[in-house]
């Protein structure tokens, strides 16, 4: 299938889509749209892989979100390498979403870092990029700084910082290390990241939805959908002063390169 558009990060497997998932996927196929369905733990990773196996315009990631690590009977969950290896297929295009999240306490930074490093090593072993999640504590860039410091120890690993909300200096550090950055619905109604968006090289930026969350204008406040990624892409192009169609084509090529689509 030849794609014209791609949403590089969605959760189309989540329950919010149970009533109309197949209709959305059919509409995506009609307009030549693909998405990467992102796993956040064992269950959702398996669901993403299954959905990708059923549809040629769906790809998948496998991994554990940093806030999904939990203490059970005094033991912290660790990355179950054998389980995640059992999920791998040609439709699995990244490991994650993984990373660091310091936004809402309580959290255990050291356990998050441990889990992150395990997934970096898994990505190295299977020559896959990372789908990265970083959310810093309010008013800081701490999660991004820690993640970039950890990634500096694995220069051969690449990937994408999804739902990027770092500042321009963090964006520069990420790009220097070979990581792309993707943006979401909030850029359609807030200008906080305009200067950062303008600063990123054209071959290092992409659009996503994070559906069902963070819907763009004109759907703000409603359930998001991969179908809405064009609103994000067009806004990115406008902020950068670029032609919308040319920018969309560039981001599609970026996604193909990073994720080996």
Keywords summarizing the entry:
9 helices, TIM Barrel, 261 residues, 8-stranded parallel β-sheet, two-stranded antiparallel sheet, globular, alpha/beta, 10 strands
Task: Tell me the radius of gyration.
Answer: 17 Å
Number of strands: 10
Category from helices, strands and their pairing:
alpha/beta
Report the average pLDDT across residues.
Answer: 95
Helix content: 25-40%
Basic shape = globular
Q: Any idea how many domains?
A: 1
The CATH topology annotation reads as: TIM Barrel
CATH superfamily: Metal-dependent hydrolases
Uncertain stretches of 5 or more adjacent residues: none
Q: Name the strands of the widest sheet in spatial order.
A: 1-2-3-6-7-8-9-10
Beta-strand proportion: 15-25%
Task: Give a structural overview.
The protein has 261 residues and is an alpha/beta fold. The chain has one domain: TIM Barrel, CATH 3.20.20.140. Helices cover 38% and strands 18% of the residues. An 8-stranded parallel sheet has the order 1-2-3-6-7-8-9-10. Helix 8 packs across helix 9.
Write the layout of secondary structure elements.
Layout: E1 5-10, H1 21-30, E2 33-37, H2 42-54, E3 58-62, E4 71-72, E5 75-76, H3 81-87, E6 92-101, H4 109-125, E7 130-135, H5 142-151, E8 159-161, H6 168-176, E9 180-183, H7 194-199, E10 205-207, H8 229-240, H9 244-259
Parallel strand pairs: 1-2, 2-3, 3-6, 6-7, 7-8, 8-9, 9-10
Antiparallel strand pairs: 4-5
Helix pairs in contact: 8-9
Task: Describe the structure concisely for a colleague.
Helix content is 38%, strand content 18%. It is of the alpha/beta class and 261 residues long.
């Amino acid at each position: 299938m030849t794609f014209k558009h791609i949403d590089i990060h969605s959760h189309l497997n989540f329950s919010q889509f149970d009533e109309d998932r197949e209709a959305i996927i059919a509409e995506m196929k009609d307009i030549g749209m693909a998405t990467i369905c992102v796993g956040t733990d064992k269950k959702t990773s398996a669901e993403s892989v299954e959905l990708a196996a059923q549809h040629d315009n769906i790809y998948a990631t496998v991994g554990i979100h940093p806030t999904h690590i939990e203490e059970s009977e005094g033991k912290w969950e660790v990355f179950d390498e054998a389980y995640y290896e059992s999920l791998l297929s040609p439709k699995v295009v990244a490991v994650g979403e993984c990373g660091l999240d310091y936004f809402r306490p309580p959290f255990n930074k050291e356990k998050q870092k441990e889990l992150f490093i395990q997934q970096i090593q898994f990505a190295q072993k299977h020559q896959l990029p990372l789908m990265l999640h970083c959310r810093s504590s309010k008013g800081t860039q701490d999660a991004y700084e820690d993640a970039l410091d950890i990634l500096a120890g694995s220069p051969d690993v690449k990937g994408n910082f999804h739902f990027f909300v770092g500042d321009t200096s963090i964006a520069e550090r990420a790009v220097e290390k070979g990581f792309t950055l993707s943006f979401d619905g909030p850029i359609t109604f807030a200008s906080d990241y305009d200067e950062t968006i303008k600063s990123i090289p054209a071959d290092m930026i992409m659009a996503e939805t994070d559906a069902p969350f963070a819907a763009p204008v004109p759907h703000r406040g409603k359930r998001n959908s991969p179908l809405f990624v064009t609103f994000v892409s067009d806004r990115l192009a406008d902020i950068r002063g670029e032609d919308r169609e040319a920018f969309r084509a560039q981001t599609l090529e970026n996604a193909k390169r990073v994720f080996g689509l």
